């Protein structure tokens, strides 16, 4: 759980006692590659902390998968609609690698928000960052060229770039695999 603890403390100065309280509510899951962690159309009331592995969030529209997000070690995966609105979510989350994940029920985490200001503030900070990342992604999709989006992805996700299938990257960038291949051939690594 060292990766998760380091990530929490990097985001916000949470004391060891608060970390202990938070982690005591988590359940460890060791799951194989290709496991469907969250199924779209269902109510999933957990936050998933990724200790080891990589996830891909996606939606299915007209039978086609569109990748919406990637989460790596030290990050979270969850269904926003389920956790915030108590409604079934649209997104699926699958594992791109064998993974070690710690789950905490939304209700347990919400109770900690009411009793522990450090955990509440940590959550506020990571949610602010997530919303900023989402806004920047929406703006990039609307204003940047495919090459700019690709270059940004490679720069920002260099630590996971080689771990993701090219088809998933193309889908995330909103381009075809042919376009992605063309972009890759013009780039020197």
Would you give an account of this structure?
The chain has a domain at 2-117: Jelly Rolls, CATH 2.60.120. The chain is globular and about 50 Å long. It has a four-stranded antiparallel beta sheet with strand order 1-8-3-6. The chain is of the alpha+beta class. The protein has helices spanning 2-11, 16-23, 80-85, 106-115, 117-143, 146-156, 166-173, 177-185; strands at residues 27-31, 36-38, 46-52, 55-61, 64-71, 76-77, 92-95, 99-105. The chain is built from eight helices and eight strands; from the N terminus they run H-H-E-E-E-E-E-E-H-E-E-H-H-H-H-H. Helix 4 (106-115) packs across helix 5. The longest helix is centred in the last third of the chain and has 27 residues, at 117-143. The two termini are 33 Å apart.
């Amino acid at each position: 759980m060292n990766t998760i603890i380091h990530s929490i403390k990097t985001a916000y100065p949470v004391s060891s006692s608060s970390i202990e309280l938070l982690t005591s509510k988590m359940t460890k899951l060791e799951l194989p590659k290709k496991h469907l962690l969250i199924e779209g159309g269902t109510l999933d009331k957990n936050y998933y902390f990724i200790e080891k592995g990589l996830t891909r969030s996606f939606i299915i529209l007209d039978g086609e998968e569109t990748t919406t997000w990637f989460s790596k070690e030290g990050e979270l995966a969850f269904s926003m609609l389920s956790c915030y609105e108590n409604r079934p979510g649209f997104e699926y989350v699958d594992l791109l690698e064998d993974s070690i994940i710690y789950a905490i029920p939304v209700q347990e985490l919400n109770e900690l928000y009411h009793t522990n200001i450090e955990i509440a503030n940590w959550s506020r900070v990571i949610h602010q960052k997530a919303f900023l990342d989402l806004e920047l992604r929406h703006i990039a999709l609307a204003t940047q060229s495919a090459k700019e989006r690709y270059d940004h992805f490679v720069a920002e996700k260099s630590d996971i770039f080689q771990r993701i299938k090219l088809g998933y990257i193309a889908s995330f960038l909103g381009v075809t695999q042919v376009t992605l291949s063309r972009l890759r051939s013009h780039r020197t690594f």
